[in-house]
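stage 2 :: seqdesign
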Protein backbone atom coordinates (compact mmCIF):
# COMPACT_ATOMS: atom_id res chain seq x y z
CA UNK A 1 0.00 0.00 0.00
CA UNK A 2 2.75 2.35 0.96
CA UNK A 3 4.38 1.65 -2.38
CA UNK A 4 1.19 2.42 -4.29
CA UNK A 5 0.68 5.64 -2.39
CA UNK A 6 4.27 6.58 -3.10
CA UNK A 7 3.76 6.09 -6.78
CA UNK A 8 0.57 8.15 -6.75
CA UNK A 9 2.38 10.93 -5.09
CA UNK A 10 5.23 10.88 -7.56
CA UNK A 11 2.78 10.83 -10.46
CA UNK A 12 1.03 13.82 -9.00
CA UNK A 13 4.39 15.50 -8.60
CA UNK A 14 5.27 14.76 -12.25
CA UNK A 15 1.93 16.22 -13.30
CA UNK A 16 2.53 19.39 -11.33
CA UNK A 17 6.05 19.70 -12.70
CA UNK A 18 4.75 19.31 -16.23
CA UNK A 19 2.04 21.93 -15.67
CA UNK A 20 4.58 24.36 -14.23
CA UNK A 21 6.99 23.74 -17.10
CA UNK A 22 4.17 24.41 -19.59
CA UNK A 23 3.22 27.60 -17.79
CA UNK A 24 6.80 28.84 -17.94
CA UNK A 25 7.09 27.96 -21.63
CA UNK A 26 3.89 29.90 -22.34
CA UNK A 27 5.17 32.83 -20.35
CA UNK A 28 8.44 32.79 -22.29
CA UNK A 29 6.55 32.77 -25.62
CA UNK A 30 4.38 35.65 -24.37
CA UNK A 31 7.49 37.53 -23.33
CA UNK A 32 8.99 37.13 -26.82
CA UNK A 33 5.84 38.57 -28.39
CA UNK A 34 5.75 41.35 -25.81
CA UNK A 35 9.31 42.30 -26.78
CA UNK A 36 8.29 42.51 -30.43
CA UNK A 37 5.53 45.00 -29.75
CA UNK A 38 7.20 46.63 -26.72
CA UNK A 39 4.53 46.02 -24.11
CA UNK A 40 6.71 47.48 -21.35
CA UNK A 41 6.35 50.64 -19.38
CA UNK A 42 8.25 52.19 -16.50
CA UNK A 43 6.40 53.19 -13.38
CA UNK A 44 8.10 55.83 -11.27
CA UNK A 45 8.36 55.93 -7.49
CA UNK A 46 9.66 59.02 -5.66
CA UNK A 47 12.80 58.98 -3.51
CA UNK A 48 12.65 61.69 -0.84
CA UNK A 49 15.13 63.42 1.45
CA UNK A 50 14.12 62.51 4.97
CA UNK A 51 15.06 65.80 6.63
CA UNK A 52 12.68 67.92 4.55
CA UNK A 53 10.60 65.58 2.38
CA UNK A 54 11.98 66.97 -0.89
CA UNK A 55 11.74 64.59 -3.86
CA UNK A 56 15.30 64.11 -5.11
CA UNK A 57 14.67 61.44 -7.72
CA UNK A 58 12.58 58.49 -8.85
CA UNK A 59 13.18 54.79 -9.27
CA UNK A 60 11.92 53.42 -12.57
CA UNK A 61 10.15 50.09 -12.06
CA UNK A 62 9.34 47.77 -14.91
CA UNK A 63 5.75 46.83 -15.77
CA UNK A 64 4.66 44.45 -18.51
CA UNK A 65 1.22 45.02 -20.00
CA UNK A 66 0.27 41.44 -20.67
CA UNK A 67 -2.50 40.89 -23.23
CA UNK A 68 -4.63 38.83 -20.89
CA UNK A 69 -3.32 39.41 -17.40
CA UNK A 70 -2.92 43.20 -17.51
CA UNK A 71 0.09 44.96 -15.92
CA UNK A 72 2.49 42.41 -14.40
CA UNK A 73 5.15 43.28 -11.82
CA UNK A 74 8.69 41.96 -12.38
CA UNK A 75 8.30 39.20 -9.79
CA UNK A 76 5.90 37.46 -12.20
CA UNK A 77 8.33 37.24 -15.09
CA UNK A 78 11.88 38.27 -14.17
CA UNK A 79 12.85 34.63 -13.49
CA UNK A 80 11.73 33.54 -16.94
CA UNK A 81 13.38 36.62 -18.42
CA UNK A 82 16.68 35.83 -16.78
CA UNK A 83 16.65 32.09 -17.52
CA UNK A 84 15.86 32.69 -21.19
CA UNK A 85 18.22 35.66 -21.50
CA UNK A 86 15.28 37.79 -22.69
CA UNK A 87 15.61 40.16 -19.75
CA UNK A 88 18.33 42.12 -21.53
CA UNK A 89 16.03 42.95 -24.43
CA UNK A 90 13.25 43.85 -22.01
CA UNK A 91 15.65 46.07 -20.08
CA UNK A 92 16.78 47.94 -23.18
CA UNK A 93 13.17 48.65 -24.16
CA UNK A 94 12.56 49.79 -20.59
CA UNK A 95 15.67 52.00 -20.48
CA UNK A 96 14.62 53.66 -23.75
CA UNK A 97 11.33 54.67 -22.15
CA UNK A 98 13.17 55.97 -19.11
CA UNK A 99 15.62 58.02 -21.18
CA UNK A 100 12.70 59.47 -23.11
CA UNK A 101 11.06 60.38 -19.79
CA UNK A 102 14.29 62.12 -18.74
CA UNK A 103 14.07 64.45 -21.72
CA UNK A 104 10.50 65.41 -20.76
CA UNK A 105 10.90 65.71 -16.98
CA UNK A 106 13.70 67.85 -15.70
CA UNK A 107 13.56 67.41 -11.96
CA UNK A 108 15.87 65.11 -10.04
CA UNK A 109 17.49 61.85 -11.05
CA UNK A 110 16.01 58.57 -12.18
CA UNK A 111 17.41 55.17 -11.27
CA UNK A 112 17.13 52.01 -13.36
CA UNK A 113 17.52 48.42 -12.20
CA UNK A 114 20.18 46.32 -13.87
CA UNK A 115 20.35 42.56 -13.34
CA UNK A 116 23.84 41.18 -12.57
CA UNK A 117 24.11 39.30 -15.84
CA UNK A 118 23.03 42.29 -17.85
CA UNK A 119 25.51 44.50 -16.00
CA UNK A 120 28.32 42.20 -17.11
CA UNK A 121 27.13 41.89 -20.71
CA UNK A 122 29.49 43.26 -23.36
CA UNK A 123 29.26 46.99 -23.93
CA UNK A 124 26.59 47.56 -21.30
CA UNK A 125 28.11 50.87 -20.19
CA UNK A 126 28.92 52.06 -23.70
CA UNK A 127 25.47 51.22 -24.97
CA UNK A 128 23.78 53.01 -22.08
CA UNK A 129 25.90 56.11 -22.58
CA UNK A 130 25.20 56.06 -26.32
CA UNK A 131 21.47 55.83 -25.68
CA UNK A 132 21.63 58.87 -23.38
CA UNK A 133 23.71 60.78 -25.89
CA UNK A 134 21.41 60.03 -28.82
CA UNK A 135 18.36 61.13 -26.84
CA UNK A 136 20.12 64.27 -25.59
CA UNK A 137 19.57 63.20 -21.96
CA UNK A 138 21.96 64.31 -19.22
CA UNK A 139 23.89 61.27 -17.89
CA UNK A 140 24.25 63.01 -14.52
CA UNK A 141 20.53 62.51 -14.03
CA UNK A 142 20.67 58.74 -14.49
CA UNK A 143 21.67 56.23 -11.79
CA UNK A 144 21.93 52.49 -11.98
CA UNK A 145 20.78 50.12 -9.25
CA UNK A 146 22.83 46.96 -8.96
CA UNK A 147 23.08 44.31 -6.28
CA UNK A 148 26.17 43.03 -4.49
CA UNK A 149 26.24 39.93 -6.69
CA UNK A 150 26.99 42.14 -9.69
CA UNK A 151 30.07 43.51 -7.94
CA UNK A 152 31.41 40.23 -6.64
CA UNK A 153 30.86 38.22 -9.84
CA UNK A 154 33.94 39.73 -11.44
CA UNK A 155 35.20 42.56 -9.29
CA UNK A 156 37.84 44.07 -11.62
CA UNK A 157 35.38 44.11 -14.47
CA UNK A 158 32.61 45.57 -12.31
CA UNK A 159 35.01 48.30 -11.25
CA UNK A 160 35.79 49.14 -14.88
CA UNK A 161 32.11 49.34 -15.80
CA UNK A 162 31.26 51.52 -12.81
CA UNK A 163 34.22 53.80 -13.51
CA UNK A 164 33.27 54.22 -17.16
CA UNK A 165 29.74 55.16 -16.20
CA UNK A 166 30.81 57.40 -13.35
CA UNK A 167 33.25 59.30 -15.55
CA UNK A 168 30.21 60.43 -17.54
CA UNK A 169 28.15 61.18 -14.44
CA UNK A 170 26.08 57.98 -14.13
CA UNK A 171 26.28 57.06 -10.42
CA UNK A 172 25.61 53.64 -8.90
CA UNK A 173 23.26 52.66 -6.07
CA UNK A 174 23.62 49.35 -4.27
CA UNK A 175 20.15 47.80 -4.17
CA UNK A 176 18.65 45.52 -1.48
CA UNK A 177 21.65 46.10 0.75
CA UNK A 178 21.97 43.71 3.66
CA UNK A 179 20.40 40.70 1.97
CA UNK A 180 23.52 39.55 0.12
CA UNK A 181 27.09 39.19 1.27
CA UNK A 182 27.47 42.74 2.54
CA UNK A 183 31.18 42.11 2.79
CA UNK A 184 32.90 45.11 4.30
CA UNK A 185 36.16 44.44 2.50
CA UNK A 186 34.92 45.08 -1.00
CA UNK A 187 32.56 47.98 -0.45
CA UNK A 188 35.19 50.68 -0.23
CA UNK A 189 36.80 49.53 -3.49
CA UNK A 190 33.81 50.45 -5.63
CA UNK A 191 32.45 53.89 -6.48
CA UNK A 192 29.02 53.53 -4.90
CA UNK A 193 26.96 56.65 -4.35
CA UNK A 194 24.34 55.20 -2.01
CA UNK A 195 23.23 52.02 -0.29
CA UNK A 196 19.56 51.13 -0.53
CA UNK A 197 18.71 49.44 2.77
CA UNK A 198 16.55 46.44 1.94
CA UNK A 199 12.88 46.81 2.75
CA UNK A 200 12.90 43.72 4.98
CA UNK A 201 14.97 45.65 7.56
CA UNK A 202 12.77 48.72 7.30
CA UNK A 203 9.67 46.55 7.74
CA UNK A 204 11.35 44.96 10.76
CA UNK A 205 11.67 48.32 12.51
CA UNK A 206 8.12 47.67 13.67
CA UNK A 207 6.88 44.42 15.21
CA UNK A 208 8.57 41.25 16.45
CA UNK A 209 11.96 41.77 14.86
CA UNK A 210 12.29 45.29 16.18
CA UNK A 211 15.53 44.94 18.16
CA UNK A 212 17.37 42.93 15.53
CA UNK A 213 16.29 45.12 12.63
CA UNK A 214 17.19 48.23 14.56
CA UNK A 215 20.67 46.86 15.24
CA UNK A 216 21.15 45.93 11.58
CA UNK A 217 19.95 49.28 10.27
CA UNK A 218 22.21 51.05 12.75
CA UNK A 219 25.18 48.95 11.61
CA UNK A 220 24.49 49.62 7.93
CA UNK A 221 24.15 53.36 8.57
CA UNK A 222 27.39 53.40 10.57
CA UNK A 223 29.21 51.53 7.81
CA UNK A 224 27.88 53.87 5.14
CA UNK A 225 28.78 56.88 7.27
CA UNK A 226 32.35 55.67 7.69
CA UNK A 227 32.74 55.12 3.95
CA UNK A 228 31.06 58.40 3.03
CA UNK A 229 28.24 56.63 1.20
CA UNK A 230 24.67 57.94 1.31
CA UNK A 231 21.73 55.81 2.40
CA UNK A 232 18.21 55.23 1.12
CA UNK A 233 15.68 53.29 3.19
CA UNK A 234 13.45 51.12 0.98
CA UNK A 235 9.85 50.13 1.63
CA UNK A 236 8.98 52.96 4.02
CA UNK A 237 5.29 52.49 4.71
CA UNK A 238 4.64 54.16 8.04
CA UNK A 239 5.26 57.47 9.72
CA UNK A 240 7.04 55.62 12.53
CA UNK A 241 9.52 54.05 10.11
CA UNK A 242 10.15 57.41 8.45
CA UNK A 243 10.78 59.09 11.78
CA UNK A 244 13.06 56.34 13.08
CA UNK A 245 15.13 56.21 9.88
CA UNK A 246 15.53 59.97 10.00
CA UNK A 247 16.63 59.91 13.63
CA UNK A 248 19.13 57.14 12.91
CA UNK A 249 20.69 59.31 10.21
CA UNK A 250 19.41 57.67 7.05
CA UNK A 251 19.51 60.29 4.28
CA UNK A 252 16.66 59.30 1.97
CA UNK A 253 13.55 57.14 1.91
CA UNK A 254 11.39 55.41 -0.64
CA UNK A 255 8.10 53.61 -0.11
CA UNK A 256 4.34 53.67 -0.17
CA UNK A 257 4.32 56.36 2.55
CA UNK A 258 5.81 58.84 0.07
CA UNK A 259 4.20 57.47 -3.09
CA UNK A 260 3.48 54.27 -4.96
CA UNK A 261 5.07 53.49 -8.31
CA UNK A 262 2.99 55.35 -10.92
CA UNK A 263 2.98 55.54 -14.71
CA UNK A 264 4.48 58.73 -16.11
CA UNK A 265 2.00 61.58 -16.33
CA UNK A 266 0.67 61.81 -19.85
CA UNK A 267 2.37 58.58 -20.95
CA UNK A 268 0.54 56.88 -23.80
CA UNK A 269 -0.74 53.42 -22.89
CA UNK A 270 1.80 50.89 -24.15
CA UNK A 271 -0.87 48.64 -25.66
CA UNK A 272 -3.89 50.55 -26.93
CA UNK A 273 -5.39 47.37 -28.40
CA UNK A 274 -5.02 45.22 -25.32
CA UNK A 275 -8.37 43.65 -24.45
CA UNK A 276 -7.55 43.80 -20.74
CA UNK A 277 -6.94 47.51 -20.92
CA UNK A 278 -10.08 48.17 -22.97
CA UNK A 279 -12.21 46.28 -20.53
CA UNK A 280 -10.85 48.29 -17.64
CA UNK A 281 -11.34 51.57 -19.44
CA UNK A 282 -14.90 50.76 -20.45
CA UNK A 283 -15.88 50.32 -16.82
CA UNK A 284 -14.70 53.78 -15.82
CA UNK A 285 -17.10 56.65 -16.40
CA UNK A 286 -15.67 59.09 -18.95
P1 LIG B 1 13.72 46.74 -6.15
O1 LIG B 1 14.63 47.38 -7.11
O2 LIG B 1 14.24 46.50 -4.77
O3 LIG B 1 12.43 47.65 -6.14
C1 LIG B 1 11.66 47.92 -5.00
C2 LIG B 1 10.39 47.10 -5.00
O4 LIG B 1 9.66 47.38 -3.81
C3 LIG B 1 9.43 47.42 -6.14
O5 LIG B 1 8.76 46.24 -6.49
C4 LIG B 1 8.46 48.41 -5.49
O6 LIG B 1 7.21 48.48 -6.14
C5 LIG B 1 8.35 47.83 -4.11
N1 LIG B 1 7.99 48.82 -3.11
C6 LIG B 1 8.24 50.15 -3.11
N2 LIG B 1 7.81 50.73 -1.98
C7 LIG B 1 7.28 49.74 -1.23
C8 LIG B 1 6.64 49.72 0.07
O7 LIG B 1 6.50 50.72 0.76
N3 LIG B 1 6.23 48.50 0.52
C9 LIG B 1 6.37 47.36 -0.22
N4 LIG B 1 5.93 46.22 0.29
N5 LIG B 1 6.96 47.34 -1.45
C10 LIG B 1 7.40 48.53 -1.94
P2 LIG B 1 8.53 45.84 -8.01
O8 LIG B 1 8.20 47.05 -8.80
O9 LIG B 1 7.59 44.70 -8.02
O10 LIG B 1 9.97 45.34 -8.46
C11 LIG B 1 10.55 44.19 -7.92
C12 LIG B 1 11.98 44.02 -8.35
O11 LIG B 1 12.10 43.79 -9.75
C13 LIG B 1 12.85 45.25 -8.09
O12 LIG B 1 13.22 45.31 -6.74
C14 LIG B 1 14.00 45.02 -9.04
O13 LIG B 1 14.95 44.14 -8.47
C15 LIG B 1 13.33 44.29 -10.20
N6 LIG B 1 13.12 45.26 -11.31
C16 LIG B 1 12.26 46.31 -11.35
N7 LIG B 1 12.35 46.97 -12.53
C17 LIG B 1 13.31 46.34 -13.24
C18 LIG B 1 13.89 46.56 -14.56
O14 LIG B 1 13.56 47.49 -15.31
N8 LIG B 1 14.86 45.68 -14.95
C19 LIG B 1 15.27 44.65 -14.15
N9 LIG B 1 16.24 43.84 -14.64
N10 LIG B 1 14.75 44.42 -12.94
C20 LIG B 1 13.80 45.25 -12.48
MG1 LIG C 1 15.80 48.84 -7.27
MG1 LIG D 1 15.56 47.28 -3.62
MG1 LIG E 1 14.13 44.19 -4.07
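stage 2 :: out
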Amino acid sequence: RAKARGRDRSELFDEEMRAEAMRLLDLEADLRRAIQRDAFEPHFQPIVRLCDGAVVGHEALLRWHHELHGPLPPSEFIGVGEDSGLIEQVDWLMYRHVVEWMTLHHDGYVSINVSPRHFHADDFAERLLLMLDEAGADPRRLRIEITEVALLDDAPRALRILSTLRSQGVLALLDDFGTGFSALSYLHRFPIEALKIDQSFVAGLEGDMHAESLALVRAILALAGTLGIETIGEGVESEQQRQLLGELGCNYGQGFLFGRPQPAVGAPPPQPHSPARKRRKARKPA
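stage 3 :: structure notes
- The pocket of magnesium ion (ligand 2) is lined by residues 59, 113, 145, 175 (CB under 6 Å).
- The first strand starts at residue 40 and ends at 49.
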